[in-house]
Amino acid sequence: IEAAQLPVLAIDSLMASTSYCATPSPSLRCSAAFFPSFASPPPVLRFAVPPLPPRRLAISPPRVPIPAVASALESLVQESDDEDDEDDESGLFKDEAWASADERDAVRSPELVVPELEELPEQWRRSRIAWLCKELPAYKHSTFTRILNAQRKWLTQEDATYVAVHCLRIRDNDAAFRVFSWMERQHWYRFNFALATRVADFLGREGKVEKCREMFEAMVKQGRVPAESTFHILTVAYLSTPRGRCLEHACTIYNQMIQMGGYKPRLSLHNSLFRALVSKTGGTAKHNLRQAEFIYHNLVTTNLEVHKEVYAGLIWLHSYQDVIDRDRIIALRKEMKQAGFDESIDVLVSVMRAFSKEGRVQETEATWHEILQRGSELPAQAYVCRMEVYARTGESMKSLDIFREMKRQSIPPNVATYHKIIEIIANAEEIDVAEQLMDEFSESHMKHLMPAFLALMYMYLDLDMHEKLELTFSKCLARCRPNRILYTIYLESLIRAGNVEKAEEVFDEMHKKGTIGTNAKSCNIMLRGYISAEDYQKAEKVYDMMCKKKYDVQEDLLEELQTGLRLGKKVAVKPKPVSMKLDQEQREILIGLLLGGTQIESHAQRGVHIVHFKFQEDSDTHSVLRVHIHERFFEWLTSASRSFEDESKIPYEFSTIPHLHFGFFADQFFLKGQPVLPKLIHRWLSPRVLAYWFMFGGFKLSSGDIVLKVSGGNSEGVERIVNSLHAQSLPSKVKRKGQFFWIGFQGSNADSFWKVIEPYVLDGFLGLTTQESGTAGSGDDQETDTDSDDDAHKDGSEE
């Protein structure tokens, strides 16, 4: 029933309900929080609040903090770091409350004043607004919008603002966000900075980071600098969401808070963000050094207290850098002592790591003796540093003695220790000792055996022990997930042994396996094998493939190939011009990725577009897919993106060159920069497209059900997809969560869907496809769960 058609008496009878969503009392103050909450209730006296005008409804600070994301800072910085990693010192900041909220003053935000219902002259308007306040929170997105659309003839911005404030009062922040979004689409809308700030703060406090960020960006687009409270709450919300790129987003908002807003963050925010930066493993956290130094600079320049853990964290980050800044470490140690802090065992181990990377034996041993004088438990990482420094000076057996001394001290070696000692002994080509250590490591039932296997295989390759290398390759396949480096070493061994036929089988297997793939190095190895076997016909085919993929061909191999073809009375080989064209497989892969959320942007040159591939760093499935996509689209990537030989160094974001061929996909999948579904999408849903859509934008639940996220589009486009799947005997269900549609396959339908896509799913992908905690389907996408019937309408923004 549309409210606009209800008689006044009928509406009044509705308001007789005693529901908690009924008409707010005229004298009611909305006790909605808009400053960061903490573990304990805020003090009664915080700062002087100007008196409210008479007969006005205002949002005031709460008497009790909201529990949704309460004490986000304390819980973030006080919880122990139980991350299991071989490179990181466990418990670097364990049981420390140094990053707790020391400054309890509320962060100011603009005051929002809303007229009371009694001030409205028309009785019918008061009744209708009261009816909306009662009914709207009970509905989901589509019905919610339809009800608001039915009131457009009489509803004004002041009326809608009152409804949004009421939703904030009853803690239905999603409803307030929907009301605000609906207001933005109306012709009478005028940007209300105070209301936008309140809605953003409430959403961020509840952990709705995407919606809070959307409100944040809306303020920036209006040319307004968001309030300090919005910056603070959004940063905390990102830090409280340990998934995807949330830490990167938190750093971005923190930097904008200082550089764009000119605000001075509180000490607790500095410390919380710093701790998040150093909470990762050493190999990953080393890229956060620049941001950590920026936080330290802000602490010093704003005369805030620099905690001991900040000094320790900076030294720890510097010790993991590829190039050690020795002067900076010395300066930090000096500043730490001037501040009255003693160097902990963790700091001394970090100093040892930095010295060992530079091969400074005396400084490393001096720091080691300082650790011994402390009389505390000796960390295994310190032994690793000593082993490394002696290995750099060529005393590999001294490193072995340190490893044995460690075991005599009843200190159990961890994964990092075995990796280091096996690498050192293998580089020294001590075969028997290396094999003995490898057997001991394998029998310990520890994980992460791959680096040790690779070190052993490199040793066998240098010593031309090809039979042992092949045996080690087989053992590694049985214990570890294979990668391209493993296959490349084995391929090199087969070529050196003259077994070109077997090498050809391995090369074809690499090319067919999406999780392995080939690269410039493996192609050059195979090209050398064919030339050495004087099989110039196959060598020319490999050369043609390398030209197509824009792989660099070694000059000596090119000369030998030219000589061989001349002897065979063929024309000399010349660099062939590459005709850039997407093949069928690449087109289908790209469609699947676009359905999952891959972006295409227009270039400065008209008609030319760029594809941006972006993968989640905390997802094992995306990590595997990233390497595969990098190999399949190698010839389309920029020169910077093609410069990575080691697959572990391939970035999680890379882009293609600007090209006309991407214009078709941009026109089909994007409209004015926003993702849409092509009208012919139902014709393009091949098994390969569905497979890559699933690998990039879908996941498999523990129950066996399969879910696909639809990026962009409306209900009509989703309906075309569902009908096309149904025509392929793949019945599915549709739900809308937030701004995305989700297509799900349950029970036997999920099994049928898997049988269709299985031939195109990357090998070893099945064990990774179960939904990872904290990634897909979490966060802001869970508050508007509606059935497809309710969503078979547009958002209702049309006039």
TrEMBL record:
- Which windows of the sequence hold PPR repeats? 379-413, 483-517, 519-553
MF terms in GO: endonuclease activity
InterPro entries, sorted = Chloro/Mito_RNA_Process (IPR052500), Homing_endonucl (IPR027434), LAGLIDADG_dom (IPR004860), PPR_rpt (IPR002885), TPR-like_helical_dom_sf (IPR011990)
Q: What GO cellular-component annotations does this UniProt entry give?
A: chloroplast
**UniProt signal peptide:** none
Write out the ranges of the annotated region (Disordered). Answer: 772-799
Q: Which Gene3D superfamilies match?
A: Homing endonucleases, Tetratricopeptide repeat domain
* Compartment list: Plastid, Chloroplast
Q: Which residue intervals are annotated with compositional bias (Acidic residues) in the record?
A: 780-790
Q: Which domain of life is it from?
A: Eukaryota
This chain's protein is named Protein ORGANELLE TRANSCRIPT PROCESSING 51
Organism name: Aegilops tauschii subsp. strangulata
Its lineage reads: Eukaryota, Viridiplantae, Streptophyta, Embryophyta, Tracheophyta
